[in-house]
Design a protein that fits this description.
Elements lengths: L6 H18 L3 H21 L6 H23 L6 H9 L7 H58 L3 H8 L11 H17 L2 H23 L3 H13 L4 H20 L18
Helix pairs in contact: 1-2, 1-3, 1-10, 2-3, 2-5, 2-10, 3-5, 4-5, 4-8, 5-7, 5-8, 5-10
Length: 279
């Protein structure tokens, strides 16, 4: 596939993945549907010109970031090996038992846990990280807001998900062993670490991070006996074909995007426990 050069091209590629997933009844479309709406919202924020500190830089960042997901998807589709965490997330889409929320979190875990730190460093280099800090948080707040909103809305569509929400609480404090705040902070730390290393050593650190993210992917897929029973109850309550569930995710993501466009407040993630880790 031709590499995307602009946000519009990224959105076009994601739309192709969503439509292809609907046609093939593939759960690959779950994460793609969510991520496309985030990208559309980021584009709107850039076009508005009043959200990010540096709009040109954020378009570059968004394209570099999204291209890592698109490249992983293309590798998997061609039978080649993407990163371990992406290979696992894509592989789980062929399984029946994981709930839609688990599929979303597996994609987010791979993309935030591994890709975000790499893309952050590649966008601005070590010297540019301090200036990117504010916009880095803003784009993560958008994603956290969408995941939180979609989780709440899905519980209206599939009531058993209320059980999961009741026991797990907010997305930021942990959903099926996943925390958006911790993933964001870890990505920032990775970008900083890459900035301190010689080029020859970066691949070693990235491979080590891929292994760590893969371990968390296994925890998201198999969260322990009790939560596995709860997710199975939720799964039995998920009605409709894969393409219909993709449609539900699209609808919920669009509602979130419309609310954000109307000025809905985005609740910011809590700051890291060690402020020095974000310097």
């Amino acid at each position: 596939m031709t590499e995307a050069k602009t946000i519009d091209e990224v959105i076009q590629r994601m739309t192709q993945i969503v439509e292809d997933s609907k046609a093939k009844e593939s759960r690959l479309g779950y994460f793609a549907a969510l991520y496309r709406e985030v990208t559309i919202t980021v584009k709107r924020r850039i076009d508005d010109g009043n959200y990010f500190d540096d709009n040109a830089r954020m378009e570059k960042f968004d394209v570099i970031f999204a291209s890592r997901y698109l490249a992983a998807y293309d590798l998997a589709q061609s039978g080649s090996q993407p990163t371990l965490c992406w290979a696992y997330a894509f592989g789980v889409t062929r399984q029946w038992w994981p709930i839609a929320l688990q599929h979303l979190l597996l994609g987010i875990n791979a993309h935030i846990g591994l890709d975000l730190g790499i893309a952050t460093f590649e966008t601005v280099g070590a010297q540019g990280l301090p200036a990117l800090h504010g916009d880095f948080d803003k784009i993560n707040d958008l994603l956290a807001s969408l995941v939180r909103d979609v989780k709440e809305k899905l519980a209206m569509v599939w009531p058993p998900l209320h059980w999961l929400n009741e026991y797990l609480g907010e997305v930021e404090t942990g959903v099926i062993n996943f925390s958006m705040g911790k993933a964001r902070d870890s990505a920032w730390a990775l970008a900083q670490e890459l900035g301190r290393l010689e080029e020859k050593d970066r691949a070693i650190v990235i491979a080590r991070r891929d292994d760590d993210v893969l371990l968390l992917s296994h925890a998201i897929r198999d969260p322990g006996v009790f939560l596995t029973l709860v997710t199975k109850a939720v799964r039995l309550g998920e009605r409709g074909s894969v393409s219909q569930i993709i449609g539900v995710l699209e609808d919920q993501a669009r509602q979130w995007s419309a609310a954000v466009a109307l000025g809905k407040e985005i609740r910011h993630m809590s700051p890291p426990s060690d402020p020095k880790s974000r310097s």
